[in-house]
Write a structure and sequence with these properties.
The chain has 206 residues and is α+β, with helices and mostly antiparallel strands. It contains seven helices and seven strands, in the order βββααββββααααα.
Length: 206
């Protein structure tokens, strides 16, 4: 938000950045459902750069997905819609969200978020969503099968993610290793922070 003011008739308004480009979801649709490996690494390297900064301030996005990643016409990746973001410190009563509530997008939810265990949601939960978004971009499908969001939510709660090699065997092994680790069912088995995952993406790119 760049500015705020009130019009002559008393209506408040915000001045925000005008973005020209397309979301990664739109980019996927235009590309026929899948992206090139190098393009995918380029996009998610920049997305992780944003998360390095956000997580350093204790901000967890909690709704990362291709629709919330925007590629501008001059090649800059923006992370949009922090509407579900939670602050890990100084929350009222110490709670982020009431236990048992499910918010987010089922296809990109880590197990702990799908189960409504908000006290367990942290930076590593965002990294699961980044892995799920990369999986979608390269495999052309969601991590978990399901005809409805509810079915995908149940799968996210209870099922381990398939390896990306089982769905997209053409993905190079170094790239597959980055994604598979991000999608580990247990948080301690994932990348422990955004910088570690970003570094791995850059090494896979090389």
């Amino acid at each position: 938000v760049l500015d705020d003011d009130v019009t002559d008739d008393g209506s408040p308004f915000l001045v925000m950045e005008l973005l020209v480009g397309e979301s990664v979801e739109e980019r996927l649709a235009r590309a026929g459902g899948k992206l090139d490996v190098l393009e995918t690494l380029w996009i998610f390297d920049q997305a992780l750069e944003v998360l390095v900064a956000a997580h350093a301030k204790g901000i967890v996005h909690r709704d990362l997905k291709p629709a919330n990643l925007f590629v501008t016409d001059d090649g800059v990746v923006k992370v949009l819609d922090f509407g579900l973001a939670g602050i890990r410190e100084k929350t009222i009563g110490g709670k982020l969200t009431r236990n048992g509530m499910t918010m987010g997008t089922a296809a990109f939810m880590p197990p702990e978020q799908a189960r409504g265990r908000w006290e367990l949601v942290d930076a590593r939960s965002d990294l699961w969503a980044i892995g799920a978004s990369m999986f979608r971009a390269l495999a052309g499908r969601y991590v978990h099968h399901g005809g409805t969001p509810q079915e995908r939510l149940i799968a996210a709660m209870s099922q381990h993610a398939p390896t990306i090699a089982s769905c997209a065997p053409d993905v190079p092994a170094p790239v597959a290793a980055v994604i598979d680790r991000a999608l580990a069912f247990q948080k301690q088995d994932r990348w422990q922070d955004a910088l570690s995952m970003q570094t791995a993406i850059r090494e896979a790119y090389l």
